[in-house]
Amino acid sequence: MPATSQQQVGSRGRCxxxxxxxxxxxVAPRPGNATINxxxxxxxxxxxxxxxxxxxxxxxxxFSADDITLTCEATGNPPPTFRWVKDGVEFDPSKDxxxxxxxxxxTFSLTAKDGPIHQYQGRYNCYASNVLGxxxxxxxxxxxxxxxxxxxxxxxxxxxxxxxxxxxPCNPPNSxxxxxxxxxxxxxxxxxxxxxxIQGRDGNLYFSHVTEADSxxxxxxxxQFPSARIIVLKEPIKLTVVPSNSxxxxxxxxxxxxxxxxxxYLVLSGQNLDLECIAQGLPSPKIQWIRKDxxxxxxxxxxxxxxxxxxFKNISVSDSGEYQCTATNLQGIIxxxxxxxxxxxxxxxxxxxxxxxxxxxxxxxxxxxxPNVTCPLGEMGKxxxxxxxxYIYIYIGVLEIxxxxxxxxxxxxxxxxxxxxxGALVANPRMSQLLDGSLQISNASLNDSGQYTCTVSNSxxxxxxxxxxxxxTVIVKPPLAxxxxxxxxxxxxCEYQVDSRQDAPQxxxxxxxxxxxxxxxxxxxxxxxxxxxxxxxxxxxxGTYTCEVITTLDIAEASGxxxxxxxxxxxxxxxMTEPKDRSVTLSWTPGDDHNSPVLEYLIEFEETEYERKExxxxxxxxxxxxxxxxxxxxxxSYRFRVIAINDIGKSDPSMYTDVISTPAAPPDSNPEGVRSxxxxxxxxxxxxxxxxxRSFNGPGFEYKVMWRKVLGSGxxxxxxxxxxxxxxxxxxxxxxxxxxxxxxxxxxxxxxxxKSTIGYSGEDYPLEAPLNVGVDLISSTAIKVVWAPIKxxxxxxxxxxxxxxxxxxGPESRREHVREGKPSNISFVMTDSNEEMKVLGDLLPYxxxxxxxxxxxxxxxxxxxxxxxxxxxxxxxxxxSSLLLDSPSETExxxxxxxxxxxxxxxxxxxxxxxxxxxxxVEKNIDHGVSHVSLKLDPHSRYRFYLRGYTSLGExxxxxxxxxTTLDGVPPSNISLSTGETSVNLTWVSKxxxxxxxxxxxxxxxxxxxxxxxxxxxxxxxSFYTLRGLQSGSEYRLKIDFKNKTLWEDEIQTAGxxxxxxxxxFVTESWFIGLISALVLLLLVLLILCFIKRSKGGKYSxxxxxxxxxxxxxxPMNNEGFGEYxxxxxxxxxxxxxxxxxxxxxxxDALDDYANSNSVQTEVIMDxxxxxxxxxxxxxxxPGTQESSPLNPATAISHHGLxxxxxxxx
Length: 1210
Fold this sequence. Notes:
Helix content: under 10%
Structural class: mainly beta
Number of strands: 87
Distance between the termini: 140 Å
Number of helices: 10
Strand content: 35-45%
Radius of gyration: 58 Å
């Protein structure tokens, strides 16, 4: 037997829906000369058979108090052995003491207990094995849950208007087990359900519309968990239905559950399926179900919940299709479409046959459309189902020969739907080695990729194969079914996932199976990889658009659609039929709805004889109506038009009809809101809400006003007709009761008999004030005010109550305010009309007050009673206004306070109580004139101080302070440092209760002089200080000294490059600077003396003074004498056009002689010195900005011309 090994083996995964191939294998003997020896003791009961699962385990959801049983039974010869796999790992139930295992099968069970059972949750498979192979059971799941409990939730209260829809939420506890929902009242009676009130599959209670009878406060959702044997009661919900202020209007249906136009379901055959439609509307909509792609089977479906639920039991593949529910009432229609897809299963059948016998292998399939099936013996069978391939292989094996070349028992197996065989399995449940050595892998995954080696025992034959599993190309976001308005852009997207090891795919778009490219119509389509854009949608763009993602290995495709929609066209052929006095029938022909059904029609009217001609809404009807009867009012001229409305918007108005006029008639109603708004005394003002002119019903419309006094049966009615309100009647007395009513009248007659109402004439101010006003003192802060009842005839109106005016004049010590009649504060208290006593509180003790009482009616306030003065007795004082603590030393505390702002009497003194951390309390009495006191306290304790004043009535409220004495301060020692290039930041935390103290921070540069420097004075309460003036890249020592003791010391190094200090020589010494200064001063004195001496003996040309300063400055000097000039030089200089032509100043030899002349040098120095000392005489150019060349005239004149000195000396 060959052996197969794998270099890389993946973990077991779930089997896919597509079945992997099992190779055809035949071990039947061929006819020939071969002989087979049959055992002499052979018996039929020894016939061997592979295991077959006869009882499958079933999934179960259990709670802590439930029993658990997983059944696994199988047949086979020899009898099979059983094992379990939980979540892909071997699981031996016999090793768990809590589990009991059956002897003859793999069944195990757990008896209910109080302990946790969550460890048993998981996915289980049962394996039954014997020498012929292994059978695998279906996967069963155990889901364990805690017993559902009611979570704390808020009470829900809903308030809606009559005719609206509402949903009462249930929100059952979270559980994988679906509970049974019961809506009941507080007496545990079920809420009556009908077409208007229905319970949804989600447990909520739906009202298509509410009535006033639905108002109640005990809507209770009861959730029952049968398997847990409990019922969870939810909080009752209160529903209040408010009556509508207007006529409740009918409403067209709208879907409440589900939402949207369509939804889809994917189910497996054999399961149950419920489709639900719950709609709102007024009146309650009727629900109808149809199958859009066929006939709805009455035998395979049933309806429940007043046709709101369509139920499938044991659904089959033939039930796949589209099902539509329609909700209809008088106002309109709405639909919802369910797309149901049912997937089938593939299963195997076992046959027993004899050699030479004809056998028919049944292969039943279902599908929509029906698949083509081929299954040739010995070859691969292929089932095509909805463009997906399911491969079926048939395994034929002769298990045992009864007689040579005669009858044989054959076992024919197909692979099951999860891609595993019931044949022999290797250790990995997904891999099986066939008899010919082939290796079969079920449900291949990425982890199965790798090299596989097959070796034949007793041989050197080795075959190596490499398997590479790639991800299937998947479209994760397919194109949608778009409804686009004409002229707007449409965008279809096709997002996909491709295995990264494949090349980039090609995306191909098709419209109605025809390829689309940008080049075919560059203005029509824009294709950007997986996105198709149509910038301007037109009618011809409707169709099905398919996106194909093409790789070298597979193709994925998905389809969407574009439906062009628009506003409907206006209705046509508007006709009026069946005209009557107060109605007319209007009919029309619908226009094109442009793929968006008309939801409703709006009928508008216009009054042709009214000055303001405008179209107004008259009625709305459902979209499937083409006629309606309109109610009209008398004495009006109408014309009508119709507008269609769909989801996109309103159509243009239709053509309007001819004018129809209704005849006049008496008024149908009377005005509303008839009342008396009388304000002025002795007058009766009757008013009402004016009627709409459309309710006049005829010409000559007036209001007939009637009134009479209420005197038993009363006198006859007074009548007056007017065009509009109000009507004012005078001289009727103050606050007299009248019956009043108003009737509508026109030339055709009177309206219905009106109902009368009671009104009163105008009120006047009260005449008198209450008598016998008195005050009873209750306490120092409360009084009781009493007075005699007022005479009703003096009120002259409706008595609203009494007004008490309370005037505060100040404390008892300020009686002058009472005499002067100047209250410092006035407050007012209102009472009811039936009160004749009032208690007033919150008064100030030991104070002067006065009060008066007056009568109030709707007109206003009457006269006040005479002021009644009183004063409140003495009370206890309020707390002192302030209390400050001051600690001059560690053992002393001084308390400063100010008197109470409200002494409430004569202050006798103060009581001071204070206590340490322990309960012991010290009390001290203090005279009322004292405002501070000094106490000796323990410096190690905190104290609480209570200071209160007292009068003869007792102690007042205290003022409370906490504190402790202040300790002597010391500089900080817990300092944090943060260095910069030229500074260091010092931070510390100030100690509590320590007095502020000043100190210095001393610092020393380690590689400099041995001189300590210190900072400015620093306070310990600062908590932060920056020491500046340091050098970068240098090391410093820092310390703080206090009382000849170093409290803190540290070393730092500043950041940055090290500062290179220049060594000081003798040049910077003070003695050298002084010596140089003295020499310069002496030289200056000598120069001044020399200058004065020479200036007295100088000779100057008269001509030079006359020609000007510029010509004088340009003349050269004579070396023979200072200040002497020749006439020849003067003439030559005056006739030269340039200073540098033939001049001695432009001659190098002359410059040398000039530079070697001591007299000249001396004069230049003196000239410059005097020029610098004389302000405003002459601007001397900056030497640094002038050239030193003698060719520069400005330079020569400024630095070498002697006339400069001469000019200054003049």
